[in-house]
Specification:
Order of helices and strands: HHEEEHHHEHHHHHHHHHEEEEEH
Number of domains: 3
Strand content: 5-15%
Number of helices: 15
Structural class: alpha+beta
Number of strands: 9
Low-confidence stretches: 1-16, 215-228
Helix content: 40-55%
Strand order of the largest sheet: 5-6-7-8-9
């Protein structure tokens, strides 16, 4: 049955051994199987999944992961990545959900309306994965696409998607609670357009400051005291603890900074893996000793870890993803960017320069510069150093701006 054709939620035809029994779950399996390069690894993955070798599955924006037991004693960390939707795409998708009163009721009842998926796809918003979008990753030494462990994870994900279609939304960047909150906000905004609006008012802190300025003479500012996280610890950690007072004070400063980010609405750090959190800490510049501890405790290659740390410093979690995993964007986007770069290079150098395209990467072969298109539709600049590509500057929405930035930094 095609996903575009409504059908029964629980489909028969593959028996009790089927990994997915809903049409949307089978669409996930089809995307996996259509993207696989080795049928034998898929077969092993199915066996692993049926034998219960996949641990608890964790969903996060653009990523699903689990521990998968292989032939060795320790399980491997397997994950599958899927591009998240942009804010504009989310607006289109939520509009499609609102268009039919029964869509949200069906989702809450564990059903994925086929009309919703069709309408969103027609508007250019992919909710169900396409074969070119699934990017598997695994800590095992197998370079298969996917390896048997990542394949087992994908088959296990199909069961979770069967039971809760909101899992697909979570992979695209928004979980159930965020979607419901956004729908409530949109409905409230729609009601406001048909009713008289109250005066805008001012924030409470600004109103109090204005009142205080009128009723009390200004007083000289007090000298700033140390921030709570910068104050000295009352006692030193016990000897032999493996960490120093400076280590604890750095962790306190890091915790305070994360708390401030959460208060400002930045929830990125809530969804990080252990490896990603290590990159986040390393990117904050704690010093060489911490860097070596992070490398040793994560088991990472030092050069690869340094490269990912720089990618994180320039682009956060998305920057690290761009550094590690290529993806295949639409050919129209890449062709337009390549044309714009070619024109800009003629202006910069008075001569055409070759540009090589591979998946999401545009490489200026004669200049040691590469631009990578991220899943957030921004361009991440790289320069070649010692035969490897290193992140060189923050990402830009425009490829020519990204090229100009890295061109100036490289002293071209």
């Amino acid at each position: 049955m095609s996903p575009s054709v409504p059908g029964p939620r629980r489909a028969s035809g593959r028996g009790g051994r089927a990994f997915a029994v809903t049409w949307w779950g089978r669409a996930w399996v089809a995307a996996l199987e259509d993207s696989a390069l080795d049928a034998a690894r898929l077969s092993r993955g199915r066996t692993y999944a049926r034998q219960g070798m996949v641990g608890p599955v964790a969903f996060a924006p653009g990523r699903v992961e689990a521990a998968v037991q292989g032939s060795r004693y320790r399980p491997y960390r397997s994950s599958v990545h899927l591009p998240v939707l942009t804010d504009d795409q989310w607006g289109t998708l939520l509009g499609a959900v609102e268009a039919q009163a029964g869509h949200i009721a069906a989702l809450l009842d564990g059903e994925m309306p086929a009309e919703l998926v069709d309408d969103a796809r027609t508007a250019g918003v992919p909710l169900l994965p396409m074969p070119t979008e699934l990017e598997p990753d695994c800590s095992c030494p197998d370079w298969g696409h996917p390896c048997k462990h990542a394949a087992a994870l994908c088959y296990a994900v199909a069961a979770a998607v069967d039971d809760d279609p909101f899992a697909l939304f979570a992979l695209r960047g928004r979980d159930r609670e965020e979607i419901l909150a956004l729908l409530r906000t949109r409905r409230a905004a729609a009601r406001d357009t048909t009713t008289a609006r109250a005066p805008a008012g001012v924030p409470a802190a600004a109103a109090y400051a204005a009142w205080a300025a009128r009723t009390e003479p200004p007083s000289p500012p007090e000298p700033p005291g140390p921030a709570p996280h910068a104050a000295a610890l009352p006692i030193a950690p016990p000897s032999g603890a493996g960490f120093t007072t400076a280590d604890l004070e750095h962790l306190m400063a890091d915790t305070a900074a994360r708390a401030a980010g959460l208060l400002a609405g930045d929830t990125t750090s809530l969804f990080l893996t252990r490896e990603q959190d290590a990159l986040r800490i390393a990117a904050s510049g704690p010093g060489p000793e911490w860097f070596h501890h992070l490398v040793r405790n994560t088991g990472a290659d030092p050069i690869a870890f340094a490269r990912l740390t720089r990618a994180w410093r320039h682009g956060g979690p998305v920057g690290a993803t761009v550094a590690e995993r290529p993806h295949t964007p639409g050919p129209t986007v890449m062709a337009a960017a390549r044309t714009a770069l070619a024109e800009a290079l003629v202006e910069m150098t008075d001569a055409p320069a070759p540009i090589r395209t591979w998946r999401n990467r545009l490489t200026l072969t004669g200049h040691g510069i590469q631009l990578r298109l991220g899943p957030d539709t921004r361009w991440y600049p790289y320069v070649q150093d010692g035969g490897a590509w290193w992140p060189a500057a923050p990402a830009c929405a425009d490829p020519v701006t990204a090229l100009t930035e890295v061109w100036q930094r490289a002293g071209k």
